[in-house]
Amino acid sequence: MDFKFLKDNELVVPAQTKIAMIVMDGLGGLPMEPGGKTELESARKPNLDALAAQSALGLADPVAPGITPGSGPGHLGIFGYDPMVYEIGRGVLEALGIDFDLGPNDVAARGNFCAVDAAGNLTDRRAGRIATELNVELGTLLRTIQLDGVQVFVETVKDYRFVLVLRGAGLGDALTETDPQRLGVPALPVRAHQPDAEQTALLANQFVDQARKLLADKHPANMVLLRGFAKRPAIPSYQDVFDLRAAAIAVYPMYRGLSKLLGMKTLAVPGETIADEFTVLEKNWNDFDFFYLHVKKTDSAGEDGDFARKAHVIEELDAQLPRLLALKPDVVIVGGDHSTPALLKSHSWHPVPVMLYSKFVRADGIAEYGEHACTRGSLGRLRSRELMPIALANAGRLTKFGA
User: Per the omega criterion (within 30 degrees of 0), is the bond before 69 cis?
Assistant: First the structure.
């Protein structure tokens, strides 16, 4: 079941209740050695464990069993949308996340500054996670690139990420990415999936060629990768679908962009810590029905293969959780958009541990939040998009189906 069923059958009803959703990016993990604990299981998290005892637990597949999702599809799923129906390119999310005025015919791509060796083979897909200040400097160089027949925009996002936007007539977004997702090989050429994107593929490859020359003597960021070519799609808003005044609390632009696309109010966070995000939550608690709070650094640590750091980020979140519970939310969802095990240093297909708390839930009485504990929970193994209907029901926001 997804939101279309709810909407078509007019099941959503208004209520004076509040739902809070905490998404720890890349939450799911694996033990570093057989028989060991995952990052979540290793973390000291008394508040999450106590909440788990009062919640229903389960494992959620962001897209479908066996499918490794990107962050966009992973978030769409936990937000209640079917990610196989609504595809949103990463470039669009990054552009919207930095408040770029993206036109309906613009093609946006998410860019990574990266490092290559003398032979052009990738040595670091993220250029050592360079500082945003260096990104700004390198972006100034890339803005000198000119391509026939189109306007070229290069905008800094954060750290090693930037946005490339092409604006002109007849552009297509059915394009392959240049990131091979592994080291020791060169970047891939952009190719068109459809004939109407052939010219855009040519332009994208020209941009990469010029970028390579401009960055040749820059270290550690001497090359670029382009991912997620897309135009801005049409997608129903949270207000239209769930009748929720929704707010998003996220530091990283991409997640702010997705929230904005879904009609959420993106709240400014004056800082970058988890504590800063909870301060924003407290200040705006009376103004919205639904809060999405995003924690990025679980995913970053997983991608870096840093098991201990990922567990520490979970502990940071745990320390702030009482601030949310003191506000007496009617429903709390804690989960992730996908798994990023430190063992694999990448996103993976493993289902994500999830818990759902309300005073009406049939609590499992399992006082532990972790992958193995969640396999014993009453939610079972479900699709992420099924969580929102359960949350709405527990918040008194769904009426009876049928006579």
Answer: no
Residues 36 and 142 in one domain: no
Q: Which residues contact 111 (CB under 8 A, 6 or more apart)?
A: 154, 161, 162, 163, 164, 224, 225, 226, 227
pTM above 0.90, yes or no: no
Domain boundary among 205, 230, 255: 230
Nearest to 87 by CA among 102, 110, 104, 70: 70
Count of positions (residues) in the chain = 403
Domain edge (last residue) among 230, 258, 281: 230
Residues 6+ apart with CB under 8 A from 266: 247, 248, 250, 256, 259, 260
Q: How far apart are CA 51 and CA 43, in angstroms?
A: 15
Q: How far, in Å, CA of 311 to CA of 197, rounded?
A: 43
Please tell me the distance from the alpha carbon of residue 374 to that of residue 370, in angstroms, as a whole number: 6
Domain count, the chain: 2
Instruction: Kindly give the confidence (pLDDT) of every residue in the chain, 403 residues in length, as a single tens digit, with 9 standing for 90 and above.
Output: 677 788 888 999 999 999 999 999 999 999 999 999 999 999 999 999 999 999 999 999 999 999 999 999 999 999 999 999 998 888 998 999 898 999 989 999 999 999 999 999 999 999 999 999 999 999 999 999 999 999 999 999 989 999 999 999 999 999 999 999 999 999 999 999 999 999 999 999 999 999 999 999 999 999 999 999 999 988 999 999 999 999 999 999 889 999 999 999 999 999 999 999 999 999 999 999 999 999 999 999 999 999 999 999 999 999 999 999 999 999 999 999 999 999 999 999 999 999 999 999 999 999 999 999 999 999 999 999 999 999 999 999 999 998 7
